[in-house]
Batch of 2 targets.
Target 1
Amino acid sequence: MNNPNKYSIYPNLWARIGLHLLLWLLLYIFTMIICKGTFAIGMLSAPVLLYSLILSFVVICNHYFLSYITLPFLEKRTWLWTVPLQLVMVYIFSVTVIILSIAFIAKSFPEYPTLKLQSERYYLYNFANIFNYKSFSWFISFTLFFNILSFLLKFAKNYYETNQDKISLIKEKNQMELNFLRSQIQPHFLFNTLNNIYGLVIENQKASQSIIKLSDLLRFSLYESSQGEISLQREISFLTDYIILEQIRHKDDRVNIEFDFDNIEEKSIKIKPLLLVNFIENAFKHGVNANINYSWVKIILTSKKNVVHFTIENNKPKKKHPTKQETGVGLRNVRRRLELEYPERYDLSIKETSEVYEVKLTLRINE
């Protein structure tokens, strides 16, 4: 069984489970040594074996709670106000189980006087005793150290895997840019040629506007898209130019292209470049261009409180055996980019019927 994360330190799921079990076994043995010294009785005696098991259970529960519930809050920097509450819950759980367990074991094994002394020393007379100095010192002695260590190990592991993911994204992006540039025939020459053609057709307003917009698209693709992030306003300008060129290209009555980019609350927020255009390209490629009958495309882009909503719909060509529209490298690359650049900060919904193809994308932008 392979690990779904290719950058995980574990080769597979069974190796991960095995390593966890080994570490918890070592923890159990270590707590047995501590309990032997604390209670001044044999390490293999029933009270030591039982109480060591309970201590290990508390540490293990705390570890998985902190690693898989508390740590994600810290990494995402969301709902941070709940983190202190979670830590208090861990403390109350640990102290309650540890102290009640020693009382139970002391009562079950009265032949060991040291157990009775420990039980009387840390006895919980009421709920407030959970927060006194004795209870806190017991918590520090038996659980806090192990949980801090395991938490730091988990944090370091997550940081390593996330960093490897980012490095991979940078390498993939650089390779894509390199491949793109290699496919170009002297970009500067192309720009100069477009300007020359513009001078020849300047009297034809539509032709000259088309050349200007095409030049802007090329300039954006070659230069601005290499930036890590761009303003939403610049991305909207790029998308608008692209759509207008498609409108000019499909100027006959059989094609209806609608787009609405007006409901933008904050145009200065930063997003990753060239994410949305792939969905628009897909709509024209598999919808308008493949349809010999009436076709339409509807595009809506809105933003509010650092959340961007993008929706695009297109009708599909009528075929006897309808095929899936979501094909090709483009959309696969978009999905991969979303996973790497907006981890757990995006929602992508793709719905397809025999007549309509719809994409809805939500991006939660960090402030």
Target 2
Amino acid sequence: MNIGTDIIEVSRIEKLIIEKGDKFLKRIYTDKEIDYCESKGPNKYQHYAGRFAAKEAIMKAYGANKFNFKTIEIINNENGLPKVELHTNLDVDRFLKIRVSISHIKDFATANAIVF
């Protein structure tokens, strides 16, 4: 079992999205993640930052060289909780379980991940 954590300033992600636009979004987020974050209106940058932090936390817990941002997808389950889906052809443990928690406020987003 491994644990990863990350915290990021929401303004950093907002600046990257405004300056780089789709180039940044398509490199980091899946279409489902973009649709979800965009549905949050004026709070969308908090949600983008939360998902970015979650992906970083997962990479820290499992090993950063195993995944890239697009191979980790953070969606919500039927109860609204974040759920992780891995999209990779890498030889990763088929029984790998990942739990993630995301929190955000106006200025910061944080995430914790447990890989077991």
